User: What shape does this take?
Amino acid sequence: MTELQDPGSVEPDLARSARTSSVPSAGSAGRRVHPAWFVAATGFVALIGAAGFRSVPSVLMDPLHREFGWSHGTIGAAVSLNMVLYGGISPFAAALMDRFGIRRVVAFALLLVAAGSGLTVFMTRPWELIATWGLMVGVGVGSMSMAFVATITGRWFVRHRGLVTGVLTAASATGQLIFLPLISMLAQAHGWRLPSLVVAGAALAVVPLVLLFIRDFPSDVGVRAYGAEPGSAIGVRTPPQGGITRAATVLFRVARKPQFWFLAAGFAVCGASTNGLVGTYFVSAAHDHGMPPTTAASLLATVGVFDVAGTIASGWLTDRMDARYLLIAYYALRGLSLLILPSLLAPETKPSLWVFIVFYGLDWVATVPPTVALCRKFFGDDGPVAFGWAFASHQVGAALAAVGAGIVRDVRGSYDLAWYIAGGLCAIAAVLSGLIRSRSTTARVAVTG
Assistant: This one.
């Protein structure tokens, strides 16, 4: 096994005890908690922060408009850039984690978020908002998006890999549930500057945890990946590959395989039917049918609550079932629910609408664990970067749906057609998931001694 390849750091007790333990495998009855769980827990905290940081600009839109007189379109440009970078940076961040290590990339991303958020208190011009909340925070949170999840689970876990993927994915919903009410309350009581400083402080507070508990490979601390068999190459440090250029190299490599396009197209539909459509327009569509906006917003928040449970359950199922069948079920059921949604919207909240809210929450990002698993299965060591590109398509789908549904509302006076189109796209995504071949690609693994 290789030794910890970071001579400039002070090795914590966690790493030292793991190396000296006579029980390196997770499946044995060791006396200490396997380091993989500390890595996963720290990743969960970082992902909670990233989700909250990414959502903050939308809460500060009105306070910024009142103070500076900037148009909502100008402020929205910073939010849009933030959203685009959240998905677009993902494959490059995964490649940089391969080249420089998970710990360095995540720590730098948190520092970038802290700098971007903290510097906003000095801004006086619109371009400064775009440069800070849009560019700096966007790059920072994009470096801690879903490809970060795929990298951690791919290196540190064999047993319970799907479940851990689900838990880490659920951190995105948890982060918004924790941060948005707090940020909104602070903004109303003290203006937008204090929330910006709170975000900066929260990002800085996570950096020591990342430096202390995250290691790049299990072999760095003398253990095997959790649940790995003796002699397994999973979790063994491999030579650094390519840096940022690897993202493009992997894209060219996986683009030759139809499995990637089926997964990416399905994930684009996932983004369109969640963040792009329901997340953006549910409140407005419900209000068109006479429902008070506050009631509709509460229903949407309930979706986020059930999203946590659904994603964790999906991870548990991914450990036990063929991931392709899960995607077929998720997309098909989601499409059916969208087709009947227009008939459920009314001035009052019917029991049938509550059924939709609970179901849609459970299915919101349930697609992530099986998609991560299939990327790992078909693309081997390229899996996290390939998933990063699939996640980029997710955000593109969300952006197109956000624009398209707005146009539908302007032209037709209602969102009904947008729901029907999204339902049809989900049916197509289910078909594409069924076309994915079951044969996997052998992972390219280089073992160092």
